[in-house]
Design goal:
five-stranded mixed β-sheet; 11 helices; disordered C terminus
Length: 447
């Protein structure tokens, strides 16, 4: 199907516009800020729906707007009407025999393809964006969107794994270990018990020494008492004998007792603590190293999965039904004739982009070109010729101040269908005048 009539009222900059396209190239021309873009926007909003509608579709000062598109083709004609008001918008799709479709947008969605695909915009895209667009349009057995989604998930997961691997590796590097660390921790509890036993033993020796000193004092006191208390000599001498015996026993015990030096035990305790700490550090370091290795392995597996999908994607693209011979995708770059698309000639780039646009819109055979002013005369003829040959309509916006090209828009209205000035010297110049039947003619000017 193609567009045979477009009516617009109060949409964006437009007041009232009616266009009955003629030929394959419909050029919407005029000065800047006159409503050219509004014409194409209205057409696409009517067909694609509100996802492309502006925030304020109604012309300033008006209460409503209406876009009507009349389509013709197999099997019959169809009238699409989209209305805007302050309350919202509505859409009706009906056939010329009066039948109204209950689900109008679903009918249009089944008809339209990739109306938003602009061949000139594709030419100016970055190589990675061109590759993504080609993958999106390619007819392959592989779910490329799912592949891209999995790649995105794996890329994020690999980033996390590499970050964790670096974190654990850095933690391991920060632990400095002494040499010759034993595998088994030192029994610090046993050493602590030995120290406590030594302290108790030494306390008993100190208590015995204190008692010995007390007994010696008692002996002196008794000797003094003997001198002054003759009547208590017998009892005192007996007591002296007893005490002397005890002193002898105590002295013998004192001679046999040896003090235990606790300092070596304390040194062993400190060494044991340092050794045990080193063992724990070694265990932590080994754990960090193991976790770093695990994350590195996970990252490697994710990379391999992404590389495998890249191979499968290349295989899928190589088997895909691409719209033009020689078109391909190598290492994420669109190629034509075996060379990067950016290195192809301007004519080749336009030819490929137009072929993609046509393949993307097999039912509603309409293509939009926003920046038609960027085309030279050869590029314009090439687009017009391809559209004519393949039975497509190209709706193109161009800045032109002559008023002699296409449908001229001025201040929201159709100023008129421009006609070129007649040649002054008919015999020699007639061959230069474009005609609808000439192979060099540029169809689409509304005459």
């Amino acid at each position: 199907m193609k567009i045979i009539q477009l009516n617009i009222e109060n949409f964006k900059r437009l007041t009232a516009v009616e266009i009955t396209p003629d030929g394959s190239l419909i050029q919407i021309t005029g000065k800047n800020a006159q409503g050219k873009t509004s014409v194409l926007d209205a057409l696409w909003v009517a067909l694609e729906g509100l996802r492309g509608a502006p925030i304020k579709p109604i012309r300033k000062g008006e209460e409503s707007a209406r876009i009507t598109v009349r389509l013709s083709g197999d099997p019959s004609e169809m009238i699409v009407t989209r209305r805007f008001s302050e309350k919202g918008s509505s859409l009706t799709v009906e056939s010329t025999d009066g039948a109204i479709y209950r689900k109008p947008q679903a009918v249009l969605d089944a008809l339209i393809g990739e109306l938003s695909f602009d061949p000139l915009a594709f030419v100016s895209m970055r190589p990675d964006a061109q590759a993504a667009e080609l993958i999106r349009l390619a007819d392959t057995d592989m779910d490329l969107e799912e592949s891209d989604r999995l790649d995105a998930e794996d890329f994020a997961a690999r980033t996390d794994e590499n970050r964790e691997a670096r974190r654990f590796a850095e933690s391991a590097e920060q632990i400095l270990l002494p040499e010759n660390i034993p595998d088994t921790p030192v029994d610090a509890a046993a050493l602590s018990e030995s120290i406590e036993a030594a302290i108790a033993h030494n306390s008993e020796i100190d208590a015995a020494a204190s008692r010995l000193a007390g007994m010696r004092t008692d002996k002196g006191n008794l000797v003094a008492t003997i001198q002054g208390l003759k009547d208590q000599i017998a009892a005192a001498e007996k007591r002296e004998t007893e005490i002397t015996s005890k002193i002898h026993e105590a002295e013998e015990a004192a001679k046999k007792a040896e003090r235990i030096d606790t300092e070596p035990l304390r040194l062993q305790m400190r060494a044991a603590a340092a050794t045990n700490a080193a063992i724990e550090d070694a265990k932590r370091k080994a754990g960090y190293v193991a976790q770093a290795a695990t994350h590195e392995a996970n990252a490697k597996n994710l990379t391999e999965a992404m590389e495998q999908r890249k191979v499968l994607r290349r295989m899928a693209i190589s088997k895909a039904k691409l719209p033009i011979d020689g078109l391909g995708l190598e290492d994420g770059v669109v190629t034509f004739g075996g060379v990067p698309f950016s290195q192809a000639s301007s004519a080749e780039q336009i030819k490929v982009s137009m072929a993609l646009a046509m393949a993307a819109n097999p039912k509603l055979r309409v293509i939009r070109v926003n920046e038609g002013s960027l085309l030279d005369s050869e590029g314009l003829k090439l687009i017009a010729g391809m559209a004519e040959t393949e039975d497509y309509q190209v709706w193109m916006e161009r800045v032109d101040e002559t008023g002699k090209v296409g449908v001229v828009i001025e201040d929201g209205h159709v100023k008129g269908a421009a006609k070129p000035e007649p040649a002054k010297k008919a015999p020699e110049k007639k061959a230069d005048k474009p005609s609808d039947t000439s192979s060099d003619a540029v169809p689409g000017n509304l005459l």
